[in-house]
Design goal:
The chain is of the alpha+beta class. The protein has two helices and two strands; from the N terminus they run E-E-H-H. The protein has one domain.
């Protein structure tokens, strides 16, 4: 994962959270991660996410990523792709 952001809103007096992340092609699914932080994320998900509600759909409008960050992401993608070969 390159980076992650969390957004919040209140609907009908209830807090709702939304995650946005930028991930590379070589990333593993969080369910198979050996890292404790990912296990905590999944525990939180199972405790707090109401899967019976339909997901909210968002349409991408614009990205604000400085060229230096975009270059670092591209460099990391190339490095990960070489490691997978």
């Amino acid at each position: 994962m390159h980076f992650e952001s969390i957004f919040q809103t209140h609907i009908a007096g209830r807090l709702h959270l939304c995650w946005f992340s930028v991930q590379g092609e070589a990333g593993a699914h969080v369910d198979s991660s050996p890292f404790e932080v990912d296990k905590l994320h999944m525990d939180f998900w199972r405790e707090c996410i109401d899967s019976s509600l339909p997901p909210m759909q968002f349409t991408h409008v614009v990205s604000f990523v400085p060229p230096s960050i975009a270059a670092a992401i591209a460099d990391r993608e190339r490095m990960l792709a070489q490691g997978a070969s």
